[in-house]
Structure formats: structure tokens, C-alpha cells
Amino acid sequence: MRRLLQRLKNHSRPAYFSLWFLLVFYFVSFFADILAPYHFDQQFRNKPYHPPTKIHFFDSGGNFHIRPFVYNTVIDDPVFKTYKQDYSKIYPLKFFVSGKERRIFFFFKTKRYLFGVDQPAGIFLFGTDNYGRDIFSRLLYGGRISLSISLIGVFISFSLGMITGGIAGYFGGIIDQILMRLVEILMVFPSFYLMLSLRAMFPLNLSSIQVYLLIVMILSLIGWAGLARIIRGMVLSIKEEDYVLAARSLGLPHWKILLFHIFPNTFSYSITAITISVPGYIIGEAALSLLGLGIQEPYPSWGNILSSTIGNLRVLGDAPWLLLAGIFIFVVLINFNLLGDALRNVLDPKNW
Amino acid sequence: MKKLVLKRLLQLIPMLIGMSFVSFIIIQSSPGDYFAQMKMNPEISPETIESMKVNFGLDRPILVQYLLWLKNMCKLDFGVSFAYHIPVRTLIKFRLKNTICLAIFSLVISWVIALPLAVFAGYREGTFIDKIFSMLAYLSISLPSFFVALLFVYFISKTNLLPLGGTRSIFEVDASSFALFKDYMEHLLVPGLVLCLVNVGGLFRLMKNNFIETFNTPYVLAAWARGVPRNSVIFKHALRNALNPMFTILGMEIGGILNGAALTEIICGWPGMGSLILEAVLSHDLYLVMGSLVISGFLLIVGNLIGDILIAFFDPRIRIS
Amino acid sequence: MCLTQKTGEMEQILEVKNLSVLRVEKTESISILNDINFMVKKGEMFCLVGESGSGKTTLALSIIKLLPKSFKIASGEILINGKNILEINEQSMRNIRGKDISIIFQDPSAYLDPLFTIGSHLQESYHGKNENKKELISLALQEVGLDSEVQTVYPHQLSGGQQQRVMIAMALINKPSIIIADEPTTALDVLTTRQVIDLLNAIRLKHNPAIFFITHDLELAMKTGTRIGIMYRGHIVEIFKPGREKPSHPYANILLGTIEGKDTILELNFKKNTMDSKQMQQKCPFFDMCVEKEARCKKTIPFVWCDSETGIRCLKNGRNTQV
User: Fold this and answer.
1) According to the model, what pLDDT value does residue A333 have?
2) Which CATH class is domain A137-351?
3) How far apart are CA C295 and CA B230, in angstroms?
4) Of the partner residues B226, B244, B314, the one whose CB lies closest to the CB of residue C98
5) ipTM of the complex
6) Domains in chain B and their CATH numbers?
7) DSSP assignments along A215-256, one per residue
8) CB count in 10 Å sphere of residue B296
9) Res. B308: pLDDT tops 70
10) Best mutation site among A178, A193, A210, A318 for testing chain B: the one with the most B CBs within 10 Å?
């Protein structure tokens, strides 16, 4: 593993950076409860579509403050949602502030968050949405949902693809025929249409946990077919290798041969395949939530943060910072693509 | 050649049957009675519902139902939309035309941009300009179509450069066909460009890799060694051979274009298949969902078929075997 | 230089002097060809023999100036009909390729563009005027023993032997003064090999081009070549005339031993050569394996011409002292 990292570093600095960037991103989303200044559904009813809060070092008198601070804002024009700053009082930025108890993934409790300001002022790094909810906090929490869906989805479809592809390639014959026809039929549909149709099989209003599971299921159901086909191809060639023939002549049971002699040899492909298929799942989740078929309010995901901008030019014009969710998706995707590309080159035996 | 095409066409049949069966199963397993919604609708008489039930054989075993459904499908009868109360076929016909126009438009534009740039960058592999292009290609493949669409919509709404939403803004009866065409194209431009922007990077990368690969093949070396002029080597030998795998891509890309097109259509307000299936899902209009699904699968199959035929046409190794 | 001029400039078609080629990698450059000296005369069949990886193909590609990007010619001269091709630009080189010098490759199926007919390959190869193009193409095909109808056919429809004949026809069509044949028979079976060799010889006798025949098969070279160059790890270690004299370089002797069925080869220690390219330049490349090595072999050994046609790169050699 360490050698792999070293090779990756030598091969491509940007990709190595991408790897760390993604790890940090996952870390940040995982600890959103600590890092986000507000809970995802905490509303500031008097501050809808608030632009990103200005952080000051100099007060209105021109005095320098070592601790950055913000001013409270009041709505100036309720129609066009413009705000003006109230210079009478400064609200310094505080670290490790305490507030309402939050639970990190149901287990750990925390009362302290990384930073915040006293009420009634607010620190909205990326502005707020129509309910006056902090977009920055929602993006962090949303990342938790979007990124975890993609990881679980990849894991499930990969297991499915491994098992089907492995069985089809190893046993061949009629099993292979049946499984591969099934895979081909699934691949006949454009994934977006299949995704929506599968979603149509279920009622529109489900609880958030149900929707979460449903999205994971749908995405993995769509994703496994392509993986299964490629893994079958690999298993077909690996099973003719001498060491597999040797294992067979020793009379090892099939599952042992598959598990210990064939699958480990698809490892380098698997790592690459996982890396390059994650973006598809992120996009899939975002698309569903964007269209109102995925994660439902008040829970945030990168897709549904964007969804209020669709078909509503007014919102887009008033609060373009909502598009930051798209930038988050884009940044994660480009890093996955960079990393996947570099991994493919590094793990390709031809390039050793 | 004819034999090859015929063979491919025959191979399609099990594919189509499988595809329709999967569609049927998906819709069958949807919750609720098909007609629950219809019964609530006072505009539809119970007799109509009864006749539809018989028409679709809903009282018979599932396989019979499927065969009946397949029979209707062959007659391009996808049933009646719950939400619009008109045959699904009529709805799809209008939307399909728009989606195909959008797909072809963006395909043509992105190929026209990507291929020459890819050959250029491939020929100058490793130079500064190649690196710039490759970086731009990375941006393109990492941009989600819906995000680009939103950015475009935001930009257009600020500048009012082009019309947004729908397919036409001229509704006069006596408008000339040119004016209508121009109007249509103007509406097509925004979703078309969005799709193009999202696709061009992937195409560029594929084509560049193909070109570099063929440029290093022995037969290109042999062409140089025979003293063949440079343009001949690049455009005749390297380019033609590099294009061959692209025909397969063309077929597969139809699927990708349909996916990207769907979201783009919805965001840009282009009335195509993508927005149709979304509306259908949102209003739980099952026959419409099913019809859209079958047609989208059919489009992909046709795309692959076209790709295969093109390859067979251009590659003598497949044409004459 | 003096020696070669004495024998008359007319006959020299290809002359390579002090050629060194490097492969440039990220951190270092590796020496592939080292101080190569030889010439090929009109109408002769010069055979270059060496094991795989000894740099034969690199040499062939250097002569037509088509080395891959990572290769660099470090020093030396390559003269074709008296013109140093390393000093001319790419455009003029394109006029020389195919016209003055043509090349036949190892695996004909890989070197023919699968998407074009044999006819279009041949037309493309022809550099002369258009008037008698058609006749010349049929003539070239006839000469290699193929029908004119073969023109409408695609490469994959031909057998390996036929494909190689097409390659030869393409090489012939402009009546070049030298044909490089880079292991043209390696991918073919025994019978076809025989036919291709006979064909090449017949062409040589008829049109009198020089043939620079690259092979790893010393036996074949001994039978067909007028002169033989032995290559070892990027060096030409000896050039000799088969039949007239026996080679004297220890490596050449070992090679010859394989044909004559000597038992000594079994006892040879074929250990991995541990020398890097710098060491190779500083001492005899064969040093580690040589049975007759001495202390003085540890310094650079130059290539020395014995007479106008033969030469050797070894200190322990009787012929060396003649010069």
C-alpha cells in the first residue's frame, strides 16, 4: 500500500494531491457536526437569501482587531433581499463555541463546534437559502449524504459485479450465457431513464432513511452490470493461468479458487474501477435529489441544495451562491478523475 | 456486408424482447392498481376503465399480460397517459423529435470540435498546447451536465442573449419556414451547447489516445519509411485507423448523450424525452414512464447498431472476412 | 576514411561512421549503439547478425532516420550515396526514403495498413512520374511473383509470405540503390523463408541494389551474405567475408560454434551482463563473457579496418596487427 502511494506520488503529483484532497473532504463531511457552525435545519427566518457574510478585521472607526468579527445584518429591501450591516455592535468570531447538542452518526455527542458567532448575528460563509439556512453548513452535511451514498453504492455494485462476473467467467457455459444476457439487457437502457423508472416503482413520499436506502439500491442496481461484464472478462483470462490450473488440480473447492486465487488478481483493476466509478454515483444521487426524487427537505444533499434553482430564474439571480453545491460536486469529480487516471497508469502492469 | 447487417438485426430481437420484459416487470411491480388513479377521475367512465382492463388483459396471468402488452407495443401502442389523457404515443412522438434533434446537434458539434483538436494534440503530444487541451478536457469530463446547464441558464437570464425554454417563440401562422427554423435553432442552442461542452472532453481524450496509439503502429512507421508525405501519413493512415474505434464510441455515446440530455432538457426547459419521463414519474403516470423507458432503450440499441454498421462499412477486416 | 576512399567512391552506397545512439529516459540516457562503423557497397548482400536486443533494428531505423522520439543520435555520420542524411532536413529525407533507400520489416502483417488495398499501398510507394505508374506496379508485382489482381485485395486477405512479397514489391518499385531488410523472414515458416531469400537474391542479381540484411540467424547469413557484420550489445565487433576467412572475434567464434555444433558452448557462463552503459563504453563489451580476456581489454577497444572490406574490434587478433 505504501509502495503504491509512493508510485502514485512519483507518477503524478496532482493525482497524489487529489488523493489527500479527497481524504480531507471525506473527513470534513464526516465531522460536519463539529465543523459546521449551524445545524443543517437551523433557520434564520429574518435572513432568507442572505449573501455570504463579510468578515472584518477593521471596524467602522478604522481600528484593527486581531480577532476577525462580523456585523449583524438587517434586511434592507424585503423584495430584492438586500441586506445592510448594522455597525453598532461587533460580533467577534469565536472558536469552539458551545451550542445545542449534536450527535455524530448517532454515537458521539458534541456540544462544541469549530467556530461561530453570537446570535442574532450569523456567520454565513456561503450565504443562506430561502429559509435562511446556512449554505456552508448544509454543504458539509450534504457532503456526508452525497459522499456516503456514492461509497456505499460503489461497494454494493462492486460486490454484485464481482460475484456475478466471477461466477459467469469461472463457470462459463449456460450460467455465463444467462448472466451476461441479463447484464446486457440492463445495459441497454440509458442509465438516467432506468434510474427514473426504478424510482417510479416506489411512492414519491418516503421517509428520509427509506429514500437514502432506495437511492443506494437504485444506483447500485444500475452500476453493477458494467462492472460484472469487465470482471467476467478478467476472470476468463485469469482462470487459464497456470497457478489457477494448479489450484484446480489440487482439488480446491471452487469458491476457494475464486476467492483466493482469482479475485486477488483483479485487485489492481478493482481499485481503479472503484475510483473512476464513484463520480457516476455522486452524479446519480445529485440528479435524483435535484429533480426532487431523492433526498427530501430538510435533509441536505448537494443535489437538493441546487434543486431550488431549477426553473426559477429569480432564485438563481437572487442567490447565485446556491450554485456552490455544483462547484463542490465538480471539485470532487475532477479529483476522482485525476486520481482514477493516475491509478490506472500506475497499476497497469504494462507501465511497470 | 448485407449478411452482416442482417445478422446484427437478428441479434437485436432477443435484446428487444429482454428490454421490453424488464420494462414490463418494472412497471408491473409498481405499487397500486393501475387504474386506481383513473377511478378517482370523474372524467373517465367506468366502462372505459373496464375496456382498458380487457384490452391489457389485466385479469389474466402475467405472461399473457406481457404478451398482450408486447403485441400492443409492436403496434406502437403504449397506452394512454393518466395525466394528459391522450395516447402515450402522441406525447412521445413530439418529445422524441426534440430529443433526437438535440442529441444530433450536440453530437455533431462536439465531434467537429473534438476530433481535429485531438489529432492536433496527439500529433504534438507532450507540448504545451497539448497539455492545455488535456487540462480543458479534464474540466469538461468532470463538469456535471446539470451544473453547466444551470450556469448557462444563469448567464442567459442575466444577458438575455438567447431564448430560454420551449422550442419556439414565433407563433404567427404565416411565419416563413426559415424564420421558424431559425427560431427552433436558437432555442436549441443553449441545451445543445451545454451537452456539447460536457461531451467534448471525453471525446477529445478518446480520440487523442486512439490517434497516439495508431501513430505509433508499425504500419504508420512503414508509411514514413516509404517516403509517404506527412499529410498523407497523418490523415490517411493514422487518422483513418484512429477513427475506427470511434464508431463504436459513437454508438455507445448515444446512451451518454441521452443521459446528459435528459437533465439538460429539464433545466433548460427543452421539451424532450428527459423532461417527459420526469413529469411522468412525478405524476406517477406509469404508462408514460414505461413508454419513455422502452423508447430510450430502443434509441440506444439503434445507436449501437449504427456504430456497428459504420465499423463494418469502414473496416475491410470486418466487411470482407 | 582513407581506406574507404581508396577503393573508389562509386561503390559506396551506404556508409556509417562512428555512429552512437542513446535512448534518453527521465533520469539517464542509455547507450544503444556505440561507435558503429561499416559500409555497404553496390550490389552486395551485407548481413548484420546479432542476438535480440543488440541494436540491429535501432541501427536500421537510424539509417532511415525514423528512430522513436526517445532515441537520440549522439554522434557520427550516415552517408547515403555520399550525402550525410543527419544534416539534411525532414523534407529532403522524405524524398530519399522509398526512393534511394527502402526497408522491409519483420512482421509484414503489422506493417501493412489494414484499411487500404495492396494497390493503394503500391501507388503510394511509387515516387516517380504518373505516366507509367500502372505498368510499373504490375511489373513490380510480377517480379515478386504476384498477380496484378492482388491490387484490389486488402492485406488481411493475403498469407504471410504473400504479404512479405508485397512489402518487397513496394521496396523495389522506385529502384532504390539499397534495400534494408530487417529480419524479413522471422515471422515466416521455413519454406516461405527460403522463397523470400531467393527472391531477394534474384532481385539483387537483376537490378543490382545493395541489400542490408538484418538477421539473428548466422547460418542463414553465412549462406546468403557476401559480407557479414557481427553485432554485440550495440557494437559491431567484426566484419568478415564468409567463405574467404574465418571470423576472429571471440564472440563471433562462439556464434560460429553454434552452427558447427561445438560442445564448448554448453560450458560458457551466460551470466547476466552487469555492466552499465558507461562501463560498456570504457571496456570491451564482451569482457565479462570472454574466455580469452586480458588486462588490456579493460580499456576502450576501437574498431579497426583490416582491409577495405573487413574489420574487427578486438585486441587479441592477428589481423589487427596488419593495419
Assistant:
1) 92
2) mainly alpha
3) 52
4) B226
5) 0.86
6) 94-286+296-320 (1.10.3720.10)
7) HHHHHHHHHHHHHHHHHHHHHHHHTTSHHHHHHHHTT--HHH
8) 32
9) yes
10) A193
